[in-house]
Design a protein that fits this description.
The chain is of the alpha/beta class and 358 residues long. The chain is built from 13 helices and 11 strands. The protein has a 6-stranded mixed β-sheet. Strands 7-6-8-5-9 form a 5-stranded mixed β-sheet.
Length: 358
């Protein structure tokens, strides 16, 4: 009996100790929550802001240049064709891809007629290749496993500098030589009326490789409006332009940065109505997605690909059908050195280094 009482007392004492520890832990948690979440210190806020700015690259500008493996003798900022015959490639089958997307089937269908035309012009089959990421697309191009391709505006400079991409054409329509604007949009009934109203709100970006969906808005908000991520507004990632636009249509995003041509295409396709959103900021013009080829192709083949892009008539083709909602109806000649000057400046400004893993 005495043993049982002693055991009961021991258990009771142990329970009291545990309860005491739980109370202390609860108090500590409450203090941490109040000091860090509800009433964060200036030091905590500054550290959080610094980390976010570091992640976005705004605090670490770079000076990008062409990879040492390439030569640019004519000063057009594009890799020249290799001088050594052993470095040239002449693939029996040409591999083509458009901008990386979660669902590549619409692009495969859209470019069916272009691939058929290139096949007739070059006398060899053309196959569409799907990549899981832009990085893998870039590596395939650099390694000679992708021959004809396209990159979104923000992906072109790294493709040129790190993967030997030769831009030839961009998407154009009517008198538009192939340019679009970065726009920040909000739901039509949003209380956000101006860019200044983004303070304390959340802005949706697409991904770090996108000019209109990430890099351009970051720089514009900092340089023109003195707004910094973390300090003034929060950020979230949608994964793509379509997802950002859908988030505004469904009011699941407070604001989103998108490309005006993609937004037009989404309106035309019925994915969002013009009455669903408002534009609170619009940038100057940026060049559209660029089409081109791998620099190490044999000059004869490269010339045929360039001519194919320059002479392709969109009339009545699958390409025209897909891009008509954005008002794009033809290819226009790309001038990388001039057209992408602002995009290259933005890359340097946010520390977006033009490097690829070996």
């Amino acid at each position: 009996m005495r043993t049982g009482v002693r055991n009961y007392g021991d258990v009771r004492s142990l329970l009291l100790v545990i309860v005491g520890l739980l109370v202390v832990a609860a108090v500590v948690s409450a203090v941490v929550w109040v000091s860090v979440v509800r009433n964060p210190s200036k030091e905590f806020l500054q550290k959080t802001q610094d980390e976010l700015i570091k992640l976005t690259g705004l605090g670490a500008p770079v000076v990008n240049a062409m990879d040492a493996r390439y030569i640019d003798a004519d000063g057009d900022l594009i890799a020249d064709s290799p001088a050594e015959a052993a470095s040239l490639i002449d693939p029996p089958t040409l591999f083509f891809s458009y901008v990386t997307s979660e669902d590549a089937q619409p692009f495969k269908d859209a470019f069916a007629d272009l691939m058929a035309y290139v096949s007739r012009q070059t006398g060899r089959p053309v196959e569409y290749v799907v990549f899981e990421s832009t990085e893998k697309q870039l590596i395939a191009l650099r390694d000679g496993k992708l021959h004809l391709t396209a990159f979104n505006t923000g992906g072109v400079p790294i493709a040129v500098n790190a993967a030997g991409f030769v831009p030839v054409s961009l998407l154009a329509g009517g008198d538009n030589r192939g340019f679009y604007k970065m726009q920040i949009i909000v739901p039509a009934d949003s209380p956000i009326k101006t860019v200044a109203d983004l303070k304390g709100r959340e802005l949706a970006f697409t991904d770090a490789s996108s000019n209109s969906g990430y890099k351009a808005p970051l720089v514009a908000l900092k340089e023109k409006f003195d707004l910094l991520p973390g300090r003034d507004y929060g950020i979230r990632y949608s994964g793509g332009q379509d997802a950002s636009i859908d988030g505004i249509a469904k009011k699941s995003f407070e604001a989103a940065a998108v490309a005006s041509d993609v937004l037009k295409r989404s309106v035309g396709a019925g994915l969002i109505k013009e009455s669903d959103f408002r534009v609170i900021h619009e940038s100057a013009d940026f060049p559209s997605a660029a089409f081109g080829y791998a620099h190490q192709l044999k000059p004869e083949l490269a010339a045929k690909l360039r001519e194919s892009l320059n002479s392709f008539d969109w009339t009545g083709t699958s390409v025209a059908t897909y891009f008509s909602n954005a008002g794009q109806s033809r290819f226009a000649a790309a001038d990388y050195k001039v057209d992408w000057e602002q995009v290259r400046r933005i890359d340097d400004g946010i520390g977006y280094a033009h490097r690829l893993p070996e």
